[in-house]
DNA sequence: CCCGCCTGTAACTATTAAGTTACGCAACTC
DNA sequence: GAGTTGCGTAACTTAATAGTTACAGGCGGG
């Protein structure tokens, strides 16, 4: 990280925050640098001063949002609880995180649609999810004491966990329309979260 | 539909097909009309002649891809089979459809990221999925004869079915990276499909 | 046979895009 | 207090962009 004055750092953060919102809403190609600076009121020159290019600004936006998930994952690990507890807690954690962080969801999807090329350019290891280690452990324990089916693969289980939550954000509008149900409605989402939890819990039970 | 000569219709289709590929790969804003015409070798004027605007061309691309799913859904309905058979057949149908139609997936995700605004502009009812009707029926039957848990909501079940398949496409690159697993590998995907099928089958079983 | 419509080309316009240059101001350092 | 360094503005350049206009060959119906 380069050194900036306090004031400069503030400006930098304002640009970054605005950029995150716009990139999330309109995509990388759909957002112009002019729009970002018009929104912040900061001069365009400063974008290049602090970030170097539109692409680097985008990458920093991506990294910033992704860091939120990693922080969350680290603080929700309870490896000593029984597998049922762990699974339902992961579900509700992801569910509310994704709903509360639409910018994250949008940037993540966008990056996948871009075949992960920005993640390749940055180093971005995407920390081989501590969530996975947790699942491996509790699934193994569960299998030993006979509460979990033998052929559960923790990796596919984790993907299912995420997929069951993500779909409510990633396909919200098409699903709402096709199934005539409002996936923006808090009460519906509460029921959905419970349904996901339940189906997965029964899904892994021996 | 307007009347075009056979030759004209062919040109139209060439433009549309090229546009689908480019819009899917680079997004609406990321694709220029010039790029489409350069790729096809057809003159730009023709895009406006046959489609009216870039946006209308995009909407037609979206509708064309979506029609593929609707066609598939209509041909895979077997309401008289037991619920287990139906669920695992829906899973493998969606799984292979999504993998075989990456353009569809990209356009669908893009449209959701755009809050479904294009679907609003077109009529596009997204036919209240015959899949849902099927599920409602077989779940009810299953609940009557005691093979399916009472509090399974077919709508959330369908969303879970889709979500479990979609996640392998929508988040392929970030998941591959985070879990150190290649979600482009056919064998991995075969196992994934089986894992999804199994977890959901056990998930609904009474 | 010729009028009109469908198909097509090439060159154009007006706007917007990313990125740069020239310049000024304030604060801190030597 | 002269020079350096970071913060900031406005005006600029160069390339692309969506959409248009002028124009023309070919073919079917009157």
What features would you describe in this structure?
The structure is a homodimer of 206-residue chains. Chain A has 206 residues and is mostly helical. Chain A has 2 domains: 1-52, Arc Repressor Mutant, subunit A (Orthogonal Bundle); 64-204, Tetracycline Repressor, domain 2, CATH 1.10.357.10. Chain A has 11 helices and no strands. Chain A has helices spanning 6-26, 33-40, 44-51, 54-75, 83-100, 102-113, 117-121, 130-144, 154-170, 172-179, 186-204. Chain A starts with 5 loop residues before the first helix and ends with a helix. The relative contact order of chain A is 0.11. The mean pLDDT of chain A is 92. Chain A binds a DNA duplex (30 and 30 nucleotides) through helix 1 and helix 3.
Entry summary:
The structure is a homodimer of 206-residue chains. Chain A is 74% helix and 0% strand. Chain A has 206 residues and is mainly alpha-helical.
Any idea of the CATH class of the largest domain in chain A?
Answer: Mainly Alpha
Rg of chain A, alpha carbons:
20 Å
The tally of strands of chain A reads 0
Helix/strand-derived category of chain A reads mainly alpha
Reported by name, the CATH topology of the largest domain in chain A is: Tetracycline Repressor, domain 2
Q: Which quaternary structure do these chains form? A: homodimer
* Share in helix of chain A: over 70%
Rounded to the nearest angstrom, the distance between the terminal CA atoms of chain A is: 51 Å
SSE arrangement of chain A, N to C: HHHHHHHHHHH
- pLDDT < 50 runs, ≥5 residues of chain A: none
Q: Which word captures the global form of chain A? A: elongated
Query: How large is the count of helical segments of chain A?
Result: 11
Please tell me the overall pLDDT of chain A: 92
Most extensive chain-chain interface: A-B, 63 and 63 residues
């Amino acid at each position: 990280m380069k050194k900036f004055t306090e004031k400069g750092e503030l400006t930098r953060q304002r640009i970054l925050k605005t950029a995150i919102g716009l990139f999330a809403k309109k995509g990388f190609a759909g957002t112009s640098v002019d729009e970002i600076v018009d929104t912040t009121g900061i001069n365009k020159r400063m974008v290049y001063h602090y970030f170097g290019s539109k692409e680097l600004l985008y990458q920093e936006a991506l990294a910033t949002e992704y860091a939120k998930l990693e922080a969350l994952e680290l603080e929700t690990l309870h490896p000593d609880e029984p597998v049922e507890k762990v699974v339902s807690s992961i579900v509700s954690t992801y569910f509310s995180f994704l709903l509360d962080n639409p910018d994250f969801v949008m940037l993540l999807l966008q990056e996948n649609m871009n075949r992960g090329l920005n993640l390749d350019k940055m180093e971005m290891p995407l920390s081989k999810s501590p969530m996975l280690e947790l699942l491996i452990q509790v699934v193994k324990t569960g299998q030993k004491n006979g509460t979990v089916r033998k052929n559960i693969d923790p990796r596919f289980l984790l993907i299912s966990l995420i997929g069951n939550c993500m779909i409510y954000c990633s396909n919200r509008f098409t699903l709402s329309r096709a199934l005539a149900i409002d996936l923006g409605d808090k009460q519906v989402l509460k029921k959905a979260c419970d349904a996901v939890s339940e189906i997965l819990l029964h899904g892994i039970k021996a």
